[in-house]
Amino acid sequence: MEKVEVLCQRRVQCLSSSLTMALLLSVGVNLFYFCIIIYLYGDLAIYASAVPFSLMQVTCSTTDNDSCGVETDAKYNDTDLCWGPLRRVDAYHIYLAVFTLLLGPFTFFDVQKTKYLQILTSLMRWIAFAIMIVLALVRIGKGQGEGHPPLADPSGLRNLLGVCVYSFMCQHSLPSLVTPVSSKRYLTRLVFLDYVLILAFYGLLSFTAIFCFRGDSLMDMYTLNFARCDVVGLAAVRLFLGLFPVFTISTNFPIIAVTLRNNWKTLFHREGGTYPWVVDRVVFPTITLVPPVLVAFCTHDLESLVGITGAYAGTGIQFVIPAFLVYHCRKDTQVTFGYGTVNKHRSPFHHTFWVGFVLLWAFSCFFFVTANIVLSETKL
């Protein structure tokens, strides 16, 4: 009789857990799509701003449009003249229009067979990063470093967390990397070493930057700091680094745009239903392309765009949704396999404390970036 009661109790618990998981999946899936859509919109807005901004910085100067691009200690305003009567902001809008007309139409089609394009883009990134790190180290080694950063600057913390979240939004590539691995015995160590390598690379790039350039002269688009004659003597290298975002971002923009369009279609998809041609081929691509272009038209403040995208959409994708998913999956596993069952493949962070810590970290990112926006707007 006791065994029957225990069995019934376990079945009730399993049913309750299954209902909880079903509800979580229903709400969680919609929440996930909402977060990923906002994140991809932020990505596209950043890309749509970065390319015209880089072109404007390289081709415009205060007086004579010299080949050095960004001049030493030059402080530009959007109202400064660029070409004749055209202001810098006018040049930015022209470049944005050209960028939209050239790459926007890809949103209405499918982008396939991008393997070699992605390999070329990755190669260009590694070359550009290596050049910037080496040039910064050489400049510092010669005693020409301009940066004298303070030991700590609390005001920078307001936007740091959001930028960090955006910078480490590389876990979306993990499934495609992990799935083909046949033996997953050492997978945790490999992923850990991968993230340590990423952190070390970010640290090297960041610390060489803050000691090579003054904080008030560092530009949001870091590559543009090397488009100066006093930093890089070779014109070809200056041009390559100055236009580096144009090459790499332009190849990624259509891929991300198509991904966002497909997420919109999946979010509203109903089993067995199809979309009318106009909705499928016109409406979804249009709502994908127009909002980020409008944001880019209104602002090219890349630091704020990165911080906002990382803090709001990024924390949802990277912290909040995985934390709740892990918590409920662990509870469901305990009910299914019995309490006290130990998974030999469990994470070192299996304690519930880490779930709370991740949520606390997500709230901190959200809070600090929101405070940064409020304080920046009120000039405090």
Automatic annotation (TrEMBL):
Question: What are the Amino acid transporter transmembrane domain coordinates in residue numbering?
Answer: 31-336
Q: Which residues cross the membrane?
A: 21-42, 92-111, 123-140, 190-211, 231-260, 353-375
Give the membrane topology, semicolon-separated if more than one: Multi-pass membrane protein
Q: Which Pfam families does its entry note?
A: Aa_trans (PF01490)
**Keyword Transmembrane attached:** yes
Key words of the record: Glycoprotein, Membrane, Transmembrane, Transmembrane helix
Q: What is its main location?
A: membrane
> Among its keywords, does the record have Nucleus?
no
Name of the featured protein: Transmembrane protein 104
A GO CC annotation given for this chain: membrane
Q: Which family does it belong to?
A: Belongs to the TMEM104 family.
Location of the protein in the cell:
Membrane
Recorded source organism is Marmota monax
